[in-house]
Amino acid sequence: MKMNIKTTNIIIFILSGLILLISGVSHAKKLSFDGEIRTRFESFNGLNAKAYGNFSVNAKGKVDGKSNDDRMLSRVIAGFTYSENKKIIYRLHMYDGHAWGWSLGRNDFIKNRGTSDQYVMDPDEDHFEFYDANVKIKDIFTDGLSLELGRQRIFYGDHRIFGPGNWGNAIGWIWDAGRFTYKRHDDFLSAWYGRTKFKDPDRYSSFFDDHVFQGVGVYGHFKTSPNGAAEPFFAWKNSLYHDVTPEENSFQYGMRLYEKNFHGFNYDFTFAKRSGTIGNKSINAYAYVAKTGYCFEQIPMKPDFVIGRVFASGDSNPNDKTIDTYAKVFGSTIGEHYGRINIMSWSNLVDNQADLSFEPADRVHVKISYHDFSLDKAEDSWEFYKYKNKPGNHYTHLGNEFDLELKYHYLKNLQFHFIYAYFKAGDFVKNNVEDNNASTFCLECTYKFKKDFINPFG
Q1: What is the total count of domains within the chain?
Q2: pTM above 0.85, yes or no
Q3: How much is the pLDDT for 10?
Q4: What values do phi and psi take at 412, rounded to 5?
Q5: Strand 68-83 relative to strand 397-411: parallel, antiparallel, unpaired?
Q6: In this model, does residue 2 exceed pLDDT 70?
Q7: By residue range, what is the domain housing residue 215?
Q8: Which of 159, 256, 264, 433 shows its CA 20 to 30 Å from the CA of 219?
Q9: Measuring CA to CA, which residue among 291, 222, 229, 218 is closest to residue 257?
Q10: Residue 102, in any domain of the structure
Q11: Residue 181 CB contacts under 8 Å (≥ 6 apart), including other chains
């Protein structure tokens, strides 16, 4: 039955695409067939996505996968974008993500295992799901106001607060939502209500039920200079699978301020406050990002040096009635924000960082990064893996990370991406988890395509 539902998805997609194609051709509108194909090889040494250490023992004391693990990832996104006119745009795309060769799989990512609330959030496999299926109507009611209705990705700013999480092979946050945006010149304000789909390779995420969270979001963008802006935000997040786990009703609000180029100088500041409740506990947490740098545009290769701190509060007393641990809202979890080895989250974290970017050749971008990771509170957990200090231990230093990243745009629509990340374990890891360092290697190729059909019969 599960496979039939997935097959039904494909049939619906093909029939809908044919309808759009016929409509686009017969009415001389603009129709595009577009998408991307991404393949990636990853090699892990001394860790995996579920456990750290040469013995891969997770926070519950069980062996979880292999510590030296290789895998091949493949993701295809394909579909149609159809413009009825300048004011109405339809989007219909599907995606399919697969992972081969590694020691983990669907059963390793079950949430609320063994309960009526059991569901899967697999970061790397999701088969034949709708990537988007929506209509956008511009200048509705008044000039500058648009409505986007249906399945969609919602992302703003640097993707920390709202972002789909594109690095994982299965797309992170995908919404079934209604979103209004008012745009005037370069400024805009968006507001929406929606629900987020789960990521189960064998289960269809319906547009109308079977969602993990529901939420409300507000995000604004108001220019403060030609290269800078203020971006206020607000979010309400409510868990829908809570018959067994405590229900979450959390609120997040704050502001991002950035300047990309003021006579070579740049900065990026974000402050976020978290409140609300989880079960019978109240939430009182906060986080911030503070980064600044300078780009030497007159020097060959245009080196850009940035230093900063990323902070998220932890909880010094997890057993009381207040949750002081900051947790992300609907933003990206892994990727470039918290080190390319991808074992940190914006929660109970102090990340002192520095990076140097430069362009040694045309279409080549290189970034070298350093991270010094610590826990904010020794009594709280290492969020990504859920490890805690053993009784009597009060260590906070997680470790130091060194990253090398290279992007090469071989063609406009073809990009190669190389990453090497090395993690030197700190006192917390050595004394509570496993006394070994770790590294990852990644080589990725992304090809984007687009074919337009515009009044082929004249």
Answers
A1: 1
A2: yes
A3: 62
A4: -60, -35
A5: unpaired
A6: no
A7: 98-122+135-443
A8: 264
A9: 229
A10: yes
A11: 145, 146, 148, 188, 189, 190, 191
